[in-house]
Batch of 3 targets.
Target 1
Amino acid sequence: MGEVDYMQIDSLQRQVNAHSASISSAQSRITTIDEKLERLRTAKKSVGEIQKKVHDIRYPINHRNIQPEWQGKQKDAFIKQWETFSTEYTTFQTEMDTFYDDICDEITRLENQKNEENGIIGWCQSQMNNLGNFIEKLLH
């Protein structure tokens, strides 16, 4: 057992502390990401339910415009309004699909970000472990 270099140990301990602070920071970011993911998953579920309801009512509504006994101005007026409604209905469905896709993309982005943060934590923990080993050997 040789002479202990306390300056080197102090320097190594500062590195351990810096890694510990990085871990705390990454854990805080993960907590924030988890909160966002929870809200997005709830929104995704709600949008999915709305999409299903919109889809389920489309078929019966589409068949209401088939009224062979209708004639004249009322039929023409109805068909014109029906075409406008049908176009707007389709636009709404498309917007809901886009919104759902955007939510899925954001969930994936945040999950990937969380994986990166976990990687940072793992790397910092490995560095702390190595530094702890080195400090222990210096003190021995």
Note: The chain has a mean pLDDT of 90.
Target 2
Amino acid sequence: MRLKWSRSAIGDLARLHAFLAPVNPTAATRLMGRLKQAPKMLQVEPRLGASLLEFAPREVRRMLVDDYELRYEVADDLVIVLRLWHTREDR
């Protein structure tokens, strides 16, 4: 499986980093590493996350990375990271 990040997900990474970096730059850097690394396991196990039936017929799923929710779509031989946010955010 190939892995692709949507523009929205890339924007989410930037937003999360910008929020955390002024307070704790080291933690922000570590978090970005974890958030970027976690979806790589989906290339081997694309259906690892919980299915979100409200998006059917699209195969949209969610997985948690620490306190962050990552939403992704499985399409043919592609895993697309759609969005990510802190679970305390009102989404």
Note: The first strand starts at residue 2 and ends at 5.
Target 3
Amino acid sequence: MEKNMFSINENQYKEMTDEKLIENIKQDDNTALNCLLERYNDVVNMKANKFFMVGAEREDMVQEGMIGLYKAVKSFDTEKQNSFKTFANMCIERQLITAVKNSNRQKHIPLNSSISLNSAAYEDNDDMDKLEIVDLKAEDDPSDIIANQEYSKTIERKIKENLSEYELSVLYEYEKGHSYADIAEKLKTKVKSVDTAIQRIKKKANKIKESIDS
């Protein structure tokens, strides 16, 4: 039986801050947990959309994102950390990157990187039209960072040069976390057409990355 020692109704939960929900969760309030997970559902979906992982479906990436969110909930310390939102964003993205790294390692794929569709890793950013290549082997050395930035710009430019106008439109909406159905409605096309375009974009991106790395 779900434990709700506070006898709080649904609307009151929705009005609580993230940090207050965390306090309740630490007292085994499962309703607070469900409320917080639901609150961040869109965030997880948006971040999951930013990564392509070989052999994985979108649902797999969403699941990894939810694992990251759950880890954030369990490890957040209200006394030491001020913002759960910042912490959650970091944990979700770290989990997604770790999933990509582990997948590549298990499959012996030399391409140890993921294609991310948004440059902001741990903070809010409304600029959703920038492609970025996240090199999972990069060190924190400034020269490496500069080199990786130039590398990312090259990949970004080549990807955009090889996409049709329709594919660019689909990608733009996809980056914003919209579902295939929403994209289809916005572009006045069919869901199947959107899915096919996404698959083409992934193939083109991987082919471009491989050609540059070879």
Note: The chain has one domain: 40-213.
